[in-house]
Amino acid sequence: MSGTAGAEPWNVEWAAKHAAAALRYLGRNAPEVLENTSVLEPHEEAAHQAAMHGDEVAYLEALRAYCSAGRDERYEYDRGRREP
Q1: H helices within the chain, ranges in order?
Q2: Confidence of residue 1 (pLDDT cuts 50, 70, 90)
Q3: Which of 67, 52, 73 is closest to 20 using CA atoms?
Q4: Terminal CA-to-CA distance of the chain, rounded, Å?
Q5: pTM of the full predicted structure?
Q6: Could you give the 3-state DSSP secondary structure of residue 33?
Q7: pLDDT, greater one: 37 or 48
Q8: Angle between helices 56-78 and 41-52 (to 10 degrees)
Q9: CA dihedral 79, 35, 70, 53 (to 10 degrees)
Q10: What is the pLDDT of residues 42-80, one digit of tens each?
Q11: Whose CA is closest to 21, among 66, 53, 58, 55?
């Protein structure tokens, strides 16, 4: 899939595999963030929009940003700047 909407059907299994990997990453590395997901919501929405447009590249970028946001939030918890 090249990211052109309507060119090919969205591969739900492929998307679910990548989304599950992102959740496993956060579950392993930033479990506190999964209890309060507000920092992740913009990235979830970006992934959803990418899926609706059939854009695999944007979908993977959104999942990477999702993991990065969770990791960054974990660092803030570790520094004592935020409560989980």
Answers
A1: 12-29, 41-52, 56-78
A2: very low
A3: 67
A4: 38
A5: 0.81
A6: helix
A7: 48
A8: 170
A9: -160
A10: 999 999 999 999 999 999 999 999 999 999 998 888 887
A11: 66
Give the DSSP letter of residue 54. T
Q: Region 7-20: what's the mean pLDDT?
A: 91
Residues in the chain, total:
84
C-alpha 3: how far from its chain's center?
18
Q: Tokens 């052109």, residue? A: 4
Q: Which two tokens stand for residue 76?
A: 């803030």
Tokens describing residue 18: 């990548």
Q: Which two tokens stand for residue 65?
A: 């940003």
Task: Compute CA 63 distance to the chain's CA centroid, rounded to the nearest angstrom.
Answer: 3
32 CB-near residues (< 8 Å, 6+ apart): 73, 74, 77, 84
Under 8 Å between Cβ of 67 and 30:
no
